[in-house]
Amino acid sequence: MALAKLDVVVLDCPDPRALAGFYAGVLGGEVEAQEDLSWVDLKVPGGPSLAFQAAPGFTPPQWPRADQDSQQFHLDLTVDDLDAAERGVLELGAKVLDAEDRSRSWRVYADPAGHPFCLCAS
Question: What is the pTM (predicted TM-score) of this model?
């Protein structure tokens, strides 16, 4: 029996509105901001919500370093076409972290705030 139900995944960042806009461009959905913009929700169609919380002094994780500013966790995003999805996330402001091996079924990027995420072939 479960003790809890996953409600939302929250990412700390310097600019919640901007990061919510990035992920809305990647995943679709509706951005809902609080008045003070310190918390922004992204209601993702058919999936769990993401939320973005202002974090003064935010330091992005360093991928793949576990000894300093480790990534803590990352999002795996399933896509039908890795090349098309890669073009799309790069146009939205993502940065390539590890995508040189084109034979793999996944590639690693960082969102504009520096959180690692993977695009994974469906």
Answer: 0.86
